[in-house]
Fold this sequence. Notes:
The protein is an alpha+beta fold. The chain has helices at residues 2-14, 26-36, 41-54, 58-63, 66-73, 80-95, 104-107, 115-126, 135-144, 156-167, 173-186, 205-208, 269-279, 325-328, 335-344; strands at 225-235, 244-245, 256-257, 260-263, 286-291, 297-300, 304-315.
Amino acid sequence: MIFSNLLTHWYLQNKRDLPWRNTTNPYLIWLSEIMLQQTRVAQGLPYFNSFTAAFPTVFDLANAHEEQVLKLWQGLGYYSRARNLHQTAQYIANELSGVFPDNYIDLLKLKGVGEYTAAAIASFSYNEVVPVVDGNVFRVLSRYFDVETDIAAASAKKEFTALAFELIPKNNPALFNQAIMEFGALQCVPKNPDCNNCVFNESCAALQKKKVAQLPVKSKKLKVRNRYFNYLVVADANANTIIQKRTDKGIWHNLYEFPLIETNQEEDFECIASAVQNDFFEQNSIKSILEYNPKSIIHKLSHQHLHIKFWKVNLNEPIQNGIDNATLKTFPFPIVIHNFIEAHCVS
């Protein structure tokens, strides 16, 4: 078909040289696909290189401690991906003797592997004829064929998958899948694509109808929740501090943080100082309380915005089981706390 031929020809001339494209090893392809969910290639590539250096095989990843995995993942966000990655590596190493499932249906059974990732591994590693459908594919197909289906609708995935299956060359599905994803990432981008210099500028329905900016159709996201975090950066005379592990389900599960006061709104010094004295430390043990950042740091997650303040709490007495700055930096933290530690070198 003309679409497939033009697309693969464009890809062979314009594709980026990425390490996971030079292999059919399912471990490396799986690792790259999990990392690139919700992550741009430019951001994910250094993490992929770090992971493959630290864990060259699925057995190495399986044998690692979860905190080591989370520390290497620090900054990529969506930390459940890292936890699922680690657990799935353990399952493959221990239950499947290190051998990945070799087909789409069985790959779907792995924890953290959805339809898109299963299709990617199945086609790239085993050349199975199964189309990948991600945001790039939604965009390319909706524009080229003028499909107005809301991609947030439950039926959209099935519709676009069926369309992609009609287009995919049965003799080389891996090449087609790589090509359509790359085309969406480099050429048919979300905003202001260069349609004048596009291989499809004579056949793209959206371009002919002047609808490129309107497609794909996507309904509005759910309302974002605002949360207010006040972190207590405690320090004693020995420059030791306190951290805690987030064990509750939700954001940053199993990552570390400073003692936290969560409030319903942004609070002033008096409110936080009162909470520190009433809920954390005896008043006579507190030497001083200082505000690091008068203006909250706004850390945006997909479904919530965190308004974060750091407060320095200096103590008169030594902290029992406190940790020093060098030890502090070995723990996995959310990136916003990691950046604070790097900037202020708690002392």
